[in-house]
Description:
Layout: E1 8-12, H1 17-28, E2 32-37, H2 40-49, E3 56-59, H3 65-78, E4 84-87, H4 102-130, E5 134-138, H5 151-174, E6 179-185, H6 194-197, H7 200-208, H8 218-229, E7 240-243
Parallel strand pairs: 1-2, 1-4, 2-3, 4-5, 5-6, 6-7
Helix pairs in contact: 1-8, 3-4, 4-5
Amino acid sequence: MTRFAGRCAVVTGAASGIGLETARRFAAEGARVALVDRDGDAVSRACAELAGDGHHAIVMDVTDEAGWAGLAETIDKSWGQLDILVNNAGTAPFRAIVDTTLDQWRDTIGVNLDSTFLGTRAMLPLLARSGRGAIVNVSSIRGIIGGVDISAYCAAKGGVRMFTKATALECAALGNGVRANSVHPGLIATPLAAAALADPEAAARRMAALPLGRAGEPGDVAAAILFAASDEAAYMTGAELVIDGGTIAQ
């Protein structure tokens, strides 16, 4: 498949889970991909596995403002273009509100929400130059509905949801050709969800509560991300794609 032939994409949190599967699929469909992650060994291995060539493994903390500026410069010099930005990096610590320190709160907001702003701001000039730029922000169903012991994550992902809509409207008003959409996964079998699925009894209860009776796979979300980034979604901006096995339909 060559749906993304000639296009270049940045994917954050690309060393594992949804980010890794998304990077694999972009590469398999012809794109050059910059995989961004703070785990240098893992992101280097992931990059080496991709189909095609011209990919980059970028070791970076997505909350680092200077790092984003440097990445934009690197991409401009190396590729001379950017067509797709996937802000996927995230963290989801489980803590009661009264047990959450301000530093823990800020860390969760930083990795999930601040990084989305920093990446968007840094990459918008390159995406606008493309003429068909697409931003896909990975939020969560917890950006739409609440959850217990996960308040900081809910706040961050709700922020990602609304930031995406604001970005979509701003880009439309500017007429720069950039679209922005968000995806909202439910329970997906990724390393991030490992804690929620570690206890067999708790995992069984979680599955029983899902209308489809199972956790999703990273590929379920990656497919939605690729659709939102493609020309097939050319008239879609500011939209939310929910991939949750029916959870919020209940």
